[in-house]
Amino acid sequence: MKIRNVLIRYGISTLGLILVALGVGISVKSNLGIAPPSCPPVILNLRWSGISVGTFTWMMHVVFILIQLLLLRKDFQLRYLMQLPAAFVFGYMCDGALWLFDAINAPCTTYPVQIALSLAAVVLTALGIRLEVLGDGWILAGDMIPAVLSKITKTAFSTVKVLFDVFLVILTAAFAWLVFGYLSGNGSTVVIREGTLILALLTGLCMRVTDPWVDKFFGPLVPAHE
Fold first, then answer.
1. How confident is the model at residue 225 (pLDDT cuts 50, 70, 90)?
2. DSSP string for the chain
3. 182 CB contacts (<8 Å, ≥6 apart)?
4. In this model, does residue 108 exceed pLDDT 70?
5. Are the C-beta atoms of 193 and 115 separated by less than 8 Å?
6. Between the CA of residue 178 and those of 37, 42, 88, 171, 174, what are the distances in Å?
7. Closest C-alpha among 53, 39, 21, 55 to residue 190
8. pTM of the full predicted structure?
9. 69-106 residue pLDDT tens
10. Bridge partners for 190 per DSSP
11. Domain-wise residue ranges, the chain
């Protein structure tokens, strides 16, 4: 029974990761800007295209894990190492989502369609995040490091999360400017624009609407902790 419960939890969490990865893929396809946590991997991929977005994603997450280790030291719990397999799984899910949207040639030729794709990314991300939390399986380093910084600095998590997202966007914009001469991307692919703001601001608001539906349909499936 315990193994079955673990499989259910990780199954629900994995579904959440898939939806978040699809959100990343569709936001990249919108060419209107992507969510802050995905900005660094995408801009690095534009410079070094031989390394996939997913690979840069898990590499970034490994850096986040090392930072946690340095900050927490003896308080770094063994279970936090589950962030490692989660990083690889999520990274290559992002690659799969990007491949999928490239394969079906999702349209993004007009501004209304770009906005629609950004909003679809918001919904997918909101649903995915809630499923991750509900399943309580995988731990993503991108979500964990703001929590660690919040604990270390004794600052509200919401404040740290916003500041951390802003830092990632600024870092991405600085790299884009130095390498490509643009703040938004490489001149053709857009990484930072209004879509970034849409995803940063509306995902939390969307979760207020979608969370009750996710809890209603998936909540009864989640086994209680033993």
1. low
2. -HHHHHHHHHHHHHHHHHHHHHHHHHHHHHTS---GGGHHHHHHHHH-TTS-HHHHHHHHHHHHHHHHHHHHGGG--GGGGGHHHHHHHHHHHHHHHHHHHHHTT----SHHHHHHHHHHHHHHHHHHHHHHHHHT----HHHHHHHHHHHHHT--HHHHHHHHHHHHHHHHHHHHHHHHS-SSBSSSSBSSSHHHHHHHHHHHHHHHHHHHHHHHHHGGGSPPP-
3. 176
4. no
5. no
6. 20, 15, 29, 11, 6
7. 39
8. 0.88
9. 999 988 888 888 889 999 999 999 999 999 988 877 65
10. 185
11. 2-212
Tokens of 83: 């962030």
The encoded tokens of residue 138 equal 């995988």
